[in-house]
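We modelled the chain as a single entity of 259 amino acids. Its sequence is:
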Amino acid sequence: MQQFSYAKALLRHWGVDVEDIPTSDAEQKQEADFLASFGDVRVLIEEKAKEDDPTYLAQRAEELERGEIHTTALPLSRDETLSGLVRDASRQLRSSSDKPHDFRLMWFTATGLRAEGKYEQFIATLYGRTNIFEMNTSHYRRCYYFRNADFFRRAAVIDGAVVAHTDGTSISAKLCLNSLSPRYESLRRSAVLAPFGSAIEDPMTLEAEGTAFILDCALDRKSEDPLLAYLQEKYATAPLMKFDLGYINASILLPKNEA
């Protein structure tokens, strides 16, 4: 049974032409899913989805049936399982690069009970994103490429990613630009951005607005102190501290009304 495509449904709703790419069994190639045409701009897209793990759902159901409060927490930081999806998408986009196209995007949709948390976690995985607090201030800024980032690893292949999550019968989507791609400037000026309106994440724009840091050095991402020192010198700030946010969800089973 063919899996439902959130990407094609939303793109067609926007009036974007979508053309499936058939699998080449003879050559044993794992192709990208489809080509989308934003006017004259052709985009290769590979779609991935992340659903709730059946084991997790079974455990949650057992706890709720016992009358317990079920809680779940996700760190909104890099996730290796999600990174594996990016790796697979990169291979499929590269395999289909012989098709005439202008850009290559991955599409990720998170569904289920923790969809919003997985959505944020996936963006953090793409950008190696964290949060930086400046001492003696009352605010923090996002920092891009602070950790190992899949956009860095796959910059030659993936120009950006549409990251979406469902909520009941609705879906929200954001276009995340890979500012390390050699086609970044062309993509940010293209017709691809129009359907997304303001739902675009662009590290370069956010840095120019003063609301984000970009860690653009070759320092080892496993040692945080030198990274913070580099940012402090680059942006002439007070001492900096890194912290990650988390996603928390709680559920309880309510008795049915017997009216």
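As a brief sanity check on the tokenised model: The chain has a mean pLDDT of 91. Residues 6-251 form one domain.
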